[in-house]
Amino acid sequence: MVIEQFKASANMLDEDPFDSTGLHPDPTNLLAQEHIDLGILKRLTGQSIISADQFDKELVLEICKFAALLEATEIASSRPLTGKIVITAFFEASTRTRLSFESAVLRLDGKIISIPTGQSTGVAKGESLSDIGEMFNAYGDLVVVRHTDTHSIEEIMQNLRLPLINAGNGSGEHPTQALADWFAILKWKPGLIKEHIKPRDQIHLGILGTPGSMRAVNSFLRMSILFQSGIRKISIVSEMADPLGPELADRLEKSGIAFEITNDIHAVQSDLDVIYVNSIAFLGDHYESLNSRFKLNKESDLKPDAVVLHPLARLDELDPLLDETHHNLYFTQAHGAVFVRQALFIAMLNRFDRLPKKAFPFINH
Q: Is 279 left (phi over 0), alpha (psi -120 to 50) or beta?
């Protein structure tokens, strides 16, 4: 009853609010589970987000529930980020990630100072990232950084005193992408929130990619381990003999999750419930398409209710003809990133007191 009243008061629509193809689960599926715990979310206040390893399951769940509330609520008129300036420093090319972060800020009435390319900064003259970090302290309240160098975050944080979000560091990690990934999965299957899940309700998770070389897949796999109670098996499909590397392999082995590594997609795809696809890897100084012989299309032997995720941009590993099917969860994945990043901004800058009153029934203070 509370959910139905909330939908009415929040002007929730039955049809897809993005007016796009694919599967778009109702975000209130997550709000029906349990209240949002602000005490857990406030662990992020003033903190930086560098790696998926910083998160435990309870924090991921609260972020996703909070993002669901933001997706289901008209919040722009409350202006939670009024008076705050976010610096988006993208030293590497980006479309979705940069625009997603900036949309999240602007929809909360914050302001943006943007570096769209490293060539527009003193880096082009040889300036160090640590010096740039020192300058950022005077210019904004929070910094979002993407860079081609895996060690860039460590360098810029030497002098930075503002909270920072790692939006992708070379071949390292992309933790907020992993949050967006799991936000999409939990909206689709909210029962994965539970601690004790019956075997028939567990998922077989497939990863078509190379976690050791792809930062989005790296962070996704690290975060997936947190949901081990809901994962029956993980199948990693890669043309590389060692797609994980020793640290990720050790972490996966210690998790207790059954897993396999294969180079034959046809051997596993008909049993997969969630398929995470990526092909673009950043290999030190250039982009390269890995696993290009693995492709998904409308003829692929997929379970009728299987869903596909992709961090985008895609090449020919994911046929656009799948866009029109209910296997397509990747558009929801991309759309939902805005709300996940809104949730992070509000939490990191402690602007919970600016939320609209209609959100309060779903929040434990």
A: alpha
Looking at the whole model, is its pTM more than 0.90?
Answer: yes
Residues with Cβ within 8 Å of residue 38, at least 6 apart in sequence: 352, 363, 364, 365
CA pair distance 111, 109, nearest whole angstrom:
7
Domains and CATH numbers, the chain: 2-10+18-174+334-352 (3.40.50.1370), 176-332 (3.40.50.1370)
pLDDT in tens, 160-171: 999 999 999 988
Structure token pair of residue 58: 């309870």
- DSSP strand pairing (287-289 vs 280-282): antiparallel
Number of Cβ atoms within 10 Å of the Cβ of 38: 15
H helix intervals, 76-214: 96-107, 129-139, 152-156, 175-188
What does the block give as tokens for 213? 């070389």
Number of H helices, E strands in the chain: 11, 13
- Please report how the helices 175-188 and 215-224 are oriented relative to each other, as an axis angle in degrees rounded to 10: 50
Q: Are 139 and 85 in contact (CB under 8 A)?
A: yes
Asked if residue 241 has a cis previous peptide bond (ω within 30° of 0), the answer is no
pLDDT digits (tens, 9 = 90+) for 206-229: 999 888 878 999 999 999 999 999
